[in-house]
Write a structure and sequence with these properties.
- This protein is of the alpha+beta class.
- The protein has one domain.
- Helices cover 16% and strands 39% of the residues.
- The protein has two helices and six strands.
- A three-stranded antiparallel beta sheet has the order 1-5-6. A three-stranded antiparallel beta sheet has the order 2-3-4.
- The longest helix has 8 residues.
- It is globular.
- The termini are far apart.
């Protein structure tokens, strides 16, 4: 039997503390605006940011992370999952 592990990849990421932080992260590649976000398993709405790009929309809750994969795709990820999956390798 063979064993496997996930290949390490670098992603750019920002903690979504507010709309301005997210807007600076995505730059000219989209638009960020205030939104309310539902979180699976959590009742009610949380403040968040909607990121609109040519590829579609991404919702990220305030305090969670927005990552940009190597192929340019944006993805929202919760703090706990981010901390378990990623470690800082460089700071720009």
């Amino acid at each position: 039997m063979a064993a496997y592990r996930r290949r390490p990849i670098e992603v750019d990421a920002v903690r979504a503390d507010d709309v301005d932080t997210v807007a600076a992260f995505i730059g000219e590649h989209g638009r960020a605006e205030k939104a309310h976000v539902t979180i699976p398993g959590v009742r009610g709405l949380r403040p968040g940011v909607r990121v609109r790009t040519l590829d579609g929309s991404v919702l990220v809750a305030i305090g969670d992370y927005l990552i940009r994969k190597p192929d340019g795709e944006l993805m929202a990820i919760g703090v706990e999952e981010f901390n378990n999956e990623y470690e800082e390798v460089r700071w720009t």
